[in-house]
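Prompt: I keep going back and forth on a fold encoding question. Comparing notes only helps if you start from a blank page. Show me how you would write down a chain together with its backbone fold. Please set it down just below, with no commentary around it:
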Amino acid sequence: MKPSPIQTKSLIYGELHVSPYDNGQSEFEDDFTWHGVNIQINTRHAPVADSENEYALLLRLRVPNKDGKPAPYSLDLSVMGKFSYIGAPRDDALDLVVVNGLSILYSSLRETVMTVTSRMLYGPLCLPGANFADHAPSLAVDQSPPSSGTGDRNGSSTGD
């Protein structure tokens, strides 16, 4: 193993709202799949003030169970992290920090949801695998940076 050039400095949960979906039954399908579930993702990143090569990232995940196929639990989760890039200078360093940082934040939410739901009505729920490559800042439609110096991304998925 060798250390990654992207290092996690801190990880803090903002919100953890998990509640069983009321389907009128005390059980949920045993072979639940995420296909068709409305998963909403919001992300934000910004440089950390007075710090070179450090970025703050925010990930919010919602499964409101209002549209699409219902999941066993309604979710409203957010996690924030601070990440630094310690590798050799490169043009895509911000992309690496954002894509890998969001993956680290998501995996933390995934583990937390499994732990919390393991003692809830429908049993443990494992969030689907995710890839945040499409959140790389260099892929933003508007290539000019916002006046605040932050990058915001919003999106929904149907668990496909």
Observations:
- The CA atoms of residues 54 and 84 lie 4 Å apart.
- The chain has one domain: 6-140+152-157.
- The helical segments are 93-117.
